[in-house]
Amino acid sequence: MAERRLNILHLYPENMNLYGDRGNVLALAQRARWREIPARIVTREVGQPVDWDAVDLVFMGGGEDTHQARIADDFLALGRELASRLQDGLPMLAICGAYQLLGRYYETADRTQLPGLNYLDVWTEAGDTRAIGDVVSYTDLPIEPRSLVGFENHGGRTFLGSRARPLGEVTLGQGNNGEDRSEGAVQDRVIATYLHGSLLPKNPHLADLLLMWALMNRGIDDRLEPLAADEEFGAHETILSRSRNS
Amino acid sequence: MNIRLLAAVLAARLVGWVSRMSGRGGSSLPGLIARRVYPSVLRDLAAKLEWGAILLTGTNGKTTTAAMVRHIIETEGRPLLSNRAGANLILGLTATLVQAERWRIRPRADIALLETDEATMPRAGEEIQPRLIIVTNFFRDQLDRYGELTTTVRYVARGIESLGPGGVLVLNADDPQAAQLGYGRPDVLYFGLEGEAAKTAEAQGYDAMDARFCPRCGTELNYARRYYAHLGHYLCPDCGWRRPDPHIAVVRWSRKDHEMWVRIHGQVESFQWRLPGIYNLYNEAAAIAAGAAMGSRPTAIRESLATFRPAFGRMETLMAGDTRLWLALVKNPVGFNQVLSAVFEEAHEGGFSVMIVINDRYADGRDVSWLWDVDFEHWTEKLSPRRWYVSGLRARDMAVRLKYAGVPSDQVTVDENVNRILGKAMDQTGGETLYILPTYTAMLEVRQELTQLGLVRHFREG
Questions:
Q1: Quick check: A14 and B209 CB within 8 A?
Q2: What mean pLDDT is reported for chain B?
Q3: Is A235–B409 a contact, with Cβ atoms under 8 angstroms apart?
Q4: In chain B, what are the domain boundaries?
Q5: Which of A183, B70, B229, B417 is deepest in the core (most CB within 10 A)?
Q6: How far does the CA of residue A205 sit from the closest CA of chain B (Å)?
Q7: In the predicted model, what is the mean pLDDT of residues A212-241?
Q8: Do B399 and A231 touch (CB under 8 A)?
Q9: CB pair distance less than 8 Å for B369 and A21
């Protein structure tokens, strides 16, 4: 059996860290360590090599338009290898800008259409207004509770093709496009979403699903020991209660 | 006398008076009424100021810098009017000018010192036609309100277009985004730091570098010296753009002696440095530069700053019996890191506790993600308070943040109710220091409770 440890690849932490996306990486690493699974965070910036065989889980966040433009070419160059690994079951969490970049194409605020990696079966159009605010959604992923909470702040409107399914259905907030109540996308073991907040610290059940997928990908198909999560679900409940009151 | 101006001013004052009588202070309603009655009201009143207006903007340090500049001008006996920190949008600026006097229509003051929200700069500049503009720094702050950092910088750049001939622009040389606003202009007075940076940036742990790229060509900047975040001595390896030499440079400082030495146009003078933290060196340097820009003599500025007291909630200390309360506003990652660094500087002398109050109302920023960009991993290792208290609408999020930074749950008291936890924290901190770190609206709540307890008799709005 393979060794019980995890390498988390954080793509472009300097360019693509819009408001607390790094909280997701901190949450993954801590939740692994609290279970005595050594977790190492490997960062990669533009032009650096990646040792893909040593990667168990990928994270990428969102960035300002200018920063996103700065990494886009490099990301697309990286893309073939990344896409084939993702198809083979490498888990990834992609937030906001990273979500858009994984799709077929995305439109910037000035309506320029830019190519995406064409891995996720989604596309993004420019919206007239920004979707900003708290979000509550309910997911079909095998996790308990089924609720996910976070904060969205995006101008793009994302639509899903047939190969991607929504991560959740919103009961509070706009979600992908403000039209079909879908939020985020799931394809293979890739979870893509607009939710900041940071997302994983207050959705520990989703963090654990990603960790479990990462262990499975390493060939360790065991369950994760449960951890006390009173604080995490306390923060989760803060936003849930807002959807009940709205 | 313009009849519509008269009507606008009187109507606004009446509304302001009624609003205060009904116990709702700090309203921008007078500004709204005045502008409805006479849209040029701000333009007209600002044009009548004998010396002119000062606009002070930037992400962090506006309120403290404004308080220092106000103190410098007041010490010289020059009649001045200024706005409260919360009244920094166009309605607030208008309300400030129309309500400056009780009986006269036009302000008696020669000078208006206006702390101005970054996004309000284009309009404020156009209507007020300032004579002096001060830009402190640019950090990421409340993206739900402003959008991206580059947008914020663009707003301020548009405001600066209104600076007329004979005007002066005071800019932070160490902030690449602020400094580039002065590119190619002859009317700029730069301030910056030149002393040793105490530690390398790496040793300070994760540091929110909001603007590490050259504002002219986009290449990553090299730093010969970095004081915190992206403030320091930078050089673009590609286009060669570099930090301009500051006219007002802090060349040395001593925390122990509360003293800083500043070179002003070639002459070094010593100043009192009472507020902790490197970022307060910048605030004070900005104020000294503003004073110099207005023609004050360095010795006069020094004497004035020696009697300066901070605004409420900006590192002010209060005594509650034998317990010392220390308040500092937190609102974005860079600011929070700096406040924790200041707590660390202060806290070595004895037992202390820390209380963090996080709200997510509009004025606080509705997205609390930014708490994850604060380097708690670094500071919780260095700071060992007797107890952490967390409160506010998002107390639960703050509790999670501390948990993931490695603080054991049994060292943290969580209660969303600010008044209750404040009472408890003060009881349990008897004889020691309680550091209170609230977001903006949380600070107003803390202040109200301290006023109720009779601990704050009078304060300057901060």
A1: yes
A2: 89
A3: no
A4: 3-305, 314-452
A5: A183
A6: 14
A7: 92
A8: yes
A9: yes
Domain CATH for A70: 3.40.50.880
Q: Taking a C-beta distance cutoff of 8 angstroms, is the pair B369, A197 a contact?
A: yes
Report whether pLDDT(A189) > 80: yes
pLDDT in tens, B352-379: 999 999 999 988 989 999 999 999 999 9
Let me know if residue A194 belongs to a domain.
Answer: yes
Q: Does A3 touch chain B (CB under 8 A)?
A: no
Whether A229 maps to a domain, the answer reads yes
Q: Which two tokens stand for residue B397?
A: 């999020």
A89-93 mean pLDDT: 97
ipTM of the prediction: 0.96
Contact of B378 with chain A, judged by CB distance below 8 Å, is answered with no
Which residues, in sequence order, are CB contacts of A241 under 8 Å at separation 6+?
none
Cis geometry, peptide bond prior to residue B384 (ω within 30 degrees of 0) = no
Is B238 in the A-facing interface, judged by CB distances under 8 Å? no
Domain B3-305 has CATH 3.40.1190.10: yes
Of A14, A198, A230, the CB nearest to B369: A198
Domain that holds residue A101: 6-245
What is the mean predicted confidence (pLDDT) over A4-24?
A: 88
Task: Determine the pLDDT at residue B229.
Answer: 87
Class of domain B314-452: alpha beta
Measured CA to CA in angstroms, residue B148 lies from A63, A94, A99, B142 at distances of 9, 20, 18, 9
Residue B212 φ/ψ, nearest 5 degrees? -95, 0
Question: Which structure tokens are listed for B242?
Answer: 């570099």
The active-site residue, picked from B367, B375, B410, B427, is B367
In a domain, A1, yes or no: no
Is B238 an active-site residue? Answer: no
Judge whether A185 and A123 are in contact, CB under 8 Å: no
Interface check for A23 against chain B (CB to CB < 8 A): the answer is yes
Residue A132 has pLDDT above 90, yes or no: yes
- Residues of A in Cβ contact (< 8 Å) with B393: 238
Number of folded domains in chain A?
1
Say what the pLDDT of residue B349 is.
67
Report yes or no on A20 lying in a domain.
yes
